[in-house]
Amino acid sequence: MDWTRKVKPISWVKTAMTSFRSRRWRASQLMALAGEAGSGKSLTQNLLTEMFGGRSAKPYRVMTGGTTFNSDLFGGEHLVLEDESESVDIRSRRHFAANVKSLLASRDQSCHAKHREALTLQPIWRMSISLNDDPERLMVLPPLDDDVRDKIIALKIAKKPMPMPTDTPELAERFWQTMVDELPAFLAFLETWAIPADIADSRYGVRAFQNPEIVEKLNELNPEDRLLELIDLQFFRNPLCRVPWHGVGTGAEAGWRRWEVSARGSTVAELAGRLWFVSGPAREG
After folding, report:
1. I need a surface site. Which of 21, 48, 143, 171 has the fewest CB within 10 A?
2. Who wins on pLDDT, 179 or 60?
3. Which residues, other chains included, contact 143 with Cβ-Cβ below 8 Å and sequence gap of 6+?
């Protein structure tokens, strides 16, 4: 296993703590924690909140357009997202990506409370999201295109036995308190620890990383790739529509229309039609 898979999340925390302690803003990446239920994703987020001052906020409604009032976000350094998305269509995912970029890569933020005039502030935020690693839930994440890839660290969380018993609320609380008691020593270690030069980044502190298994699952479910797969499946089965086209834009759309007519009524055509709506020209309208 590449050792940087373990060092990069520690480097992300190191960069965050340096920014918080100096009260100096620095662009940051979204930390995505993907794993099966009970693997410790929410536990990790809770520990991050403790390290980041004990204050957190929930940006989901703001990021999905559920509200324009965002003043509550300015009360916490840790912006926490959990597996709560209701929509995984391509437009929602791209909207999500735009908000990640806006909240984490822009220094000036508009703070708008209800019945108050908006004002511009410079919060120091870090954002994490926890989600199950089944393909459908991973679709909450945006497509990993060139504009997004450097803004996300995506980790696969493996489920392991807890080092202490947690079978009862009392035991779970004791385990939690033990971890909290150890945080000062961990943070003291980070103060003198240096991010390895080969993974350091001048803008974010550490280069982005996406677990290969997560990337593979996202690519398999990417609407554009799935659309191409379905068109190829039907296109090359039907000799009547093997009319090649070259170029992009209207040429590709014309080819799609020829294929659509020839395949009309098939299950493949129906599925491809749905994907065309969210990955083709319709998404731009």
Report:
1. 21
2. 179
3. 90, 93, 94, 97, 218, 222, 224
